[in-house]
Amino acid sequence: MGEKIFIGVAWPYADGLLHLGHIAGAYLPADIFARYHRTKGNEVLMVSGSDQHGTPITIKAEQEGKKPSEIATQYHQQFLDSWQKLGISFDLFTTTGTANHAEVVHDIFLTLLDRGYIYKSTMSQPFCPQCQRFLPDRYIEGTCPYCHSSGARGDQCDKCGKPMNTDELIDAHCRICGSTPVFKDSEHFFLKLTAFEDRLLDWVRQQSHWRQNVLNFTTRYLEEGLKDRAITRDIDWGVPVPVDGFENKRIYVWFEAVIGYLSATKEWAKSSGDEEKWRSFWQGDVKSYYFIGKDNIAFHTIIWPAMLMGYGELNLPYDIPANEFLTIEGRKLSTSRHWAVWLPDYLSRYDPDPLRYLFSINMPETGDTDFSWREFIRRNNDELVATYGNLVHRVLTFVYRNFDGCVPPAGEFDSQTQALLNRAEDTLKTMDELLYRCHFKEAIRSAMSLAQEANRYLDDKSPWKTIKENRPAAATALHAAISVLSCLRTALYPFLPFSSQKLHEYLGFDGKVEDYGWQPTVPEAGQKLLPPQPLFTKLDEKLVEEETSRLEHAHY
Ligand SMILES: [Zn+2]
Ligand SMILES: [Zn+2]
Description:
The structure is a single chain. A four-stranded parallel sheet has the order 3-2-1-13, sandwiched between helices. A four-stranded antiparallel sheet has the order 5-4-9-10. Strands 7-6-8 form a three-stranded antiparallel sheet, with no helix packed on it. α12 packs antiparallel against α13 (440-461). It is elongated and about 90 Å long. By secondary structure, it is α/β, with parallel strands linked by helices. The protein is built from 17 helices and 16 strands. Bound molecules: zinc ion (2 copies).
């Protein structure tokens, strides 16, 4: 029996299209991890969904004169389309708008309320006299009380990543009309985070396998002391509060969105026909990973674990490999200023694997990384096309033409050939260790260095020359090269699933790459190859200018 791996991925707000920052930050690493574990034969469940609630969506709906549900449905469809085209292989991508989700949220809310971890209290809430409404979360902006940067929202500061209550904001103003709010008393429910402070600190200090940035942020945050957080809002869009007298309020989006990991699992279990199956990913021997961007760390290392501790009987996160940010052409990505590359836009012009490649080899794992069109084109042309694609193409076309479209027989291996084959086997082992610990960048680098090594080997052996005087030697060299290709199709599959599947078929294998396991499966002599096509397409360097100017023009 393999391991059980639960993968939760950040829930995108259904208020806009996905951009490259989302992909590099959370979705691609999660997908690489899921594909790797599936290939290992482990049982994987990867879930997420669109976050249909919260003020980002109501603000967007007001701007466009639509209902929040229309906005949410529209973007949910776009998300599903993007996952399919980019190959993000969710087992379930649902929404927070389902009856199942509300039911699971109510169960957790009422259980925590019953145990005294949720309590009722009056708080002073900003109210806009001009707009005649309360101003929760994104309806209000001001200066962050922690890092003093401007543009902090009522629920969180983007600059320092700290969550906050709206009354903590300095110089707060209404985002709709700019007025200064007055404060009015309003009754709300609070999550008693202070009750979990010691337990959280003890737990976090044991997580030596977490990434340093995640560990540091969380420890610092806990050491500064937690505050109880209001988990209801004066709004009418969201999950209802299951308590009489709260009909005009809703549960705070963050409290309910993190519960989505559990409700999605329950939905998945129900649709599989075995309602109790959710337990197999939430109780007992399962490792739970949460893939998120660094702005979500506190919600996954403190708030969600506190809720789980209070509820009991469910697994705490095992790892939260949060990524840093992606910059675009050297500047901070900003959706409001249109300094972003949108995923559907990318996918309408390019293949998925070159983007997956760039973000794998240059992933913001330990520090911010930059996306530029120049680097995108360069890595596609120099690395995917010239190194890997060319290796595949020259081996397969030559073998196809000279050995009746079949894998040639191997003679005895000389030391150089044996060394290459050992290297291929070692690469899979090394990558196994790296991927297991979520070191994606290092893992793909070792695969690419195997491809370079195989190119050098072929240049040395030059089977296209030796075939005339020593056909068996040429056959042996090509057999070895095909063995390496066959390792590369597995090694690169989590990163480049589309081209790996193609290579798998060119090599004459049936079914899917992941059915063959994380091991060197070498085609036997005589195995029939498919007529090979190039795996990647060279991109014109003129595109750098075209794409950069497209970005500049969209920017304001
Ligand atoms: Zn701040
Ligand atoms: Zn206002």
